[in-house]
Amino acid sequence: MAGVIALFDVDGTLTPPRKVASVEMLDFLQELRKVITVGVVGGSDLSKISEQLGKNTINDYDYVFSENGLVAHKGGSQIGSQSLKSFLGEDQLKEFINFVLHYIADLDIPIKRGTFIEFRTGMLNVSPIGRNCSQEERDAFEQYDKIHNIRRDMVNVLKEKFSHLPLTYSIGGQISFDVFPRGWDKTYCLQFLDDFKEIHFFGDKTFKGGNDHEIFESERTIGHTVTSPGDTREQCTRLFLTTM
């Protein structure tokens, strides 16, 4: 199908959150590449996406957009990069980070671990529990957060405190949320896809406030909400493979 690309979120769409993709899924994506162009867009940095999809990720897919496309690869070669540090400047960045760390220090939640802020090329990833938690602790925090809205409330505080900065906050995964300049959500990657007449996007967090929402709602994409990696395969099979 010339001019058609399927663009996939990673966590919850191709893999269980922060886990490795199944062999079945990896094989399926390679079969899909025989029919259409396949791209991946995730909020994580390239090293984390590669942990989930394989060490050769940038060569296994036609397009790989890490950090929402702020670091972009096509056919194994980097075609774009953008820096949060250059955009905000050190003073504003330091003010924001200091406030976040103070907020988390005062936060009363069942457990805390380490790495509460992860500095990436084009965004900050903020985790109230800390990214060093175990998978069991990660699962427990996700359930706790669904009841107590720890991340949602923290985002609301940051929006008010730093309303003078053009920042977007996007809750994704199980334990964290991303912070990046307005317009640097997953729609950022679409600038690299002007040659395609149809861009199908598949993601699980397509609701408002989820990190798939903006690209799902974009006029440039045909959005598909999925509930699991298995659901992703089923929808793609119906759309792209049963018409062969």
TrEMBL record:
GO biological process, one term: GDP-mannose biosynthetic process
Names of required cofactors: Mg(2+)
Residue numbers binding alpha-D-mannose 1-phosphate: 18, 120, 131, 138, 176, 178
UniProt-annotated binding residues for Mg(2+): 9, 11, 204, 216, 221
InterPro entries assigned: HAD-like_sf, HAD-SF_hydro_IIB, HAD_sf, PMM, PMM_cap
Leader sequence segment: none
Keywords: Cytoplasm, Isomerase, Magnesium, Metal-binding
Family to which this protein belongs: Belongs to the eukaryotic PMM family.
UniProt function note: Catalyzes the interconversion of mannose-6-phosphate to mannose-1-phosphate, the precursor for the synthesis of GDP-mannose. GDP-mannose is an essential sugar nucleotide for the synthesis of D-mannose-containing cell wall polysaccharides (galactomannans and glucomannans), glycolipids, glycoproteins and the antioxidant L-ascorbate.
Protein name: Phosphomannomutase
Species name: Selaginella moellendorffii (Spikemoss)
